[in-house]
Amino acid sequence: MFRNDKAHDTMNKPIEPVSPGKINSIMEGTTIEGELRSDSNVRIDGRVKGTINVRGRLIVGATGHVEGDVTCQSSDIEGTVNGKIACQDLLSLKATARLSGDINTKKLAIEPGAVFTGNCNMGGGGSPVKEMDPVRLSTSTDRPSSLASPEAKPEPLKTTR
């Protein structure tokens, strides 16, 4: 629907946007369904249902709602996104952001208040993050084996007056 064949072959390469200082804007009250492709920056304050491919920065404003997969160079999310995001550089989730889906990005910034549900893969490809074993917090009576042998007893505290 919004396809530019010239950009189709270069979407997966880190190429600068054609017009870095200009922003395509989808205003509040606008709904788009289908595939959205842009060689420059895009701001969404309305609703988009479908795939989004942006060679520049994607901004989803506080009233913006995206339902579908996203590929972009960098992104600032203030609104709602339901779908996978592949971001080649920095993905920033602002305090009002609501993201439900998997993330693949080089860098991630999440402000307090943002809600993210899904898996995150950072640092250039690979499988999503696997669930990790729970962390056991040590107490004052725990001694790592590398620091003391099992027979060693802690020295009593000395006080001076």
In short:
The protein has one helix spanning 5-8; strands at 23-26, 31-33, 36-38, 41-44, 47-49, 52-60, 65-67, 70-77, 80-82, 85-93, 98-100, 103-110, 115-117, 120-122. It is mainly beta.
Mean of pLDDT: 78
| Outline type | globular
* Secondary structure category: mainly beta
Number of helices: 1
Which value, in Å, is the CA radius of gyration? 23 Å
Strand content: 35-45%
Question: Helical residue percent?
Answer: under 10%
The major β-sheet equals:
8 strands, parallel
Regions with little confidence, pLDDT below 50 for 5+ residues: 3-11, 125-150
What does it look like?
There is one protein chain. The protein has one helix at residues 5-8, and strands at residues 23-26, 31-33, 36-38, 41-44, 47-49, 52-60, 65-67, 70-77, 80-82, 85-93, 98-100, 103-110, 115-117, 120-122. It is mainly beta. It has one domain (5-117). The strands form two sheets. Strands 1, 3, 4, 6, 8, 10, 12 and 14 form an eight-stranded parallel β-sheet that branches. The longest helix has 4 residues, at 5-8. The model is unreliable at 3-11 and 125-150 (pLDDT under 50).
